[in-house]
């Protein structure tokens, strides 16, 4: 079930974001992600429009949007590959009609996932925080 975010979800969302980020972004030191936990909790997630995928009362993943931009899409690592990310992305597509996002070039599985979901690369840029290349993608 996909539902709107509640403030009580915040701790679990940060935990999922951190655990999934460390695994997916193996090319960035885990200490970087650890240093961003407070900003995620206090700034980024509260400012976004967040939707939760709940499975048997537990948060299995979430998507965060600012306008038509996907700022975050994370699924509990052991639950990846079960359609949760796709369901969250489809929910966002229905709500917004078009979407954009950035994904690290080295994160091949995420890049492939977004391409499979109909996103196309429109450019690239260097992330100012990590110095890693990000692919800019759009879906319309």
TrEMBL record:
Single Gene Ontology MF annotation: acyltransferase activity, transferring groups other than amino-acyl groups
Pfam family, one: Acetyltransf_7
The UniProt record lists the keyword Disulfide bond: no
Keyword presence, Acyltransferase: yes
Domain of life: Archaea
Enzyme Commission no: 2.3.1.-
Transmembrane segment boundaries: 16-34
Principal EC category: transferase
Domain N-acetyltransferase: 1-140
Keyword terms: Acyltransferase, Membrane, Transferase, Transmembrane, Transmembrane helix
InterPro entries (alphabetical): Acyl_CoA_acyltransferase, GNAT_dom
PANTHER family found in the cross-reference section: PEPTIDYL-LYSINE N-ACETYLTRANSFERASE YJAB
NCBIfam families xref list: PRK10562.1 (NF007853)
Protein known as: Acetyltransferase
